[in-house]
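User: For a reading group we're discussing how well predicted structures match intuition. Take Tripartite-type tricarboxylate transporter receptor subunit TctC. Before you show the prediction, I'll give you the sequence so everyone sees exactly what went in.
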Amino acid sequence: MKDTHTRTTLITGILAVPALALTACGGQADGDDAESFPDETITFITAFAAGGANDSLARMLAEHTETVDEDYDFVIENIDGGSGSVGQAEGAQADPDGHTLLLVTPSIITNPMFNDVPYTHDSFEPVILINSEPHVLLVNADAPYDDFASFVEHAEENPGQVSIGVSGAETTTAFTSRDLASAAGIETTTVPHDGTADALLQAQGGHIDGAVAGGLTEAQSAIDEGSLKPILVFDDERLEDMPDVPTASEQDLDTMHSSWRGVAVPEGTDPEIIQALHDVFQEALETPGYEEASENLNLSIDYAGPEDFQSLIDATYETYSDYED
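Assistant: Thanks. Here is the predicted 3D structure of Tripartite-type tricarboxylate transporter receptor subunit TctC, as structure tokens, for the group to look at:
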């Protein structure tokens, strides 16, 4: 098995059209390029730091794709900064030849909505959806409430005093926190942090009352060690790994939020190249090795092809456009 290369870059400082219409887009590869694809190493950008769920998914997918098709060779490039916007800009501005990919999350939608960035979600073409997780509300294990009902009671008795950490000011987890307060009829304080890991760490230390994670995976280690406990899943189905944690729908809360992850290429990429990438990635997802690796990380495999992934992106845009000024 080949070793997937790694290049880490730290910087501090979908699609919009149907496949047939892509032939009119400028800058795309011609038929000869599609037939010879891939003819060089593929750069796979993840717009977040190494070590998290996004990075792990990119590495897993690259590794198992190289296993099923030896023509594919990847270098993982972590371009961290601006809540993902730095790496996303790099991905959007790359040559649309299929040799630069981006691991995308809902932040390709929210970042352009609330920040001055040189791209929108329409700057990308979807290739494949690989994972989706509902958001989860967690509280410190020593908190004076054991479940969601007692959490709400505590918040009602202490209006504005219950603090919920989120990954950033205008992020999907921030919207989840605000929606929760509105839906539950309680007054809480949403506290932005520098990423979910920082929010969870502050909740573990008791500096805030709880945190919203963009999925169980992000909080699994804290749950396993007993420092945080999940009390609500923002979905209509309970999690298989946490069957005792109630859902938002069970609490009569109309607030469903999830974080999805997939692969996209720059707008204007040849549809034949998109299809080739989709097919080899789908094959990789179905290998026993990928399934085992996902299970070890408590990551679900949630597949959708380009068309259905497009629909999910469009639906996500509609959801979060309600928060746009």
